[in-house]
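Researcher: I'd like a structural prediction for the single chain below. Treat it as a standalone chain; there are no partners to consider.
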Amino acid sequence: METDIASCFEAIPIDGLMRAVEERVCDQSLLKLLRVMLSAGVMEGGSVRWSVTGTPQGGVISPLLCNVYLHRLDRGWDVREHGVLCRYADDVLVMCKSRAQAEAALIRLREALGALGLEVKEAKTRIVHLEVGGEGLDFLDFHHR
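Model: Treating it as a single chain, here is the predicted structure.
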């Protein structure tokens, strides 16, 4: 099963992200700098837009912050029940043994992301059977069959 997380960078709740960072980082000056970065506006079409959620799309630190926040998803994933979760930032791939396991994994993924204030991007969500000569899938710029 492959999917993306819908509007992931923009939808990450800043308070939840900061709690995730504070699990490992205690340097108050670094935490303050991170809060300032997250509250900084983004220049769009000649004007600055401020957002109350998320990390700046295209920001150099955004993939790192996304991975820090979504580490909670990784920690709570049961490999035996739902397959192997491979994820980088908002790209998600779950390798399962059967279609039934893939369908259960998709349900679990929706629940887990919902608890984090996120959701799957339905237009990019699909279950693919990997086989020789099959359609395959693209994950992190590599094609898998």
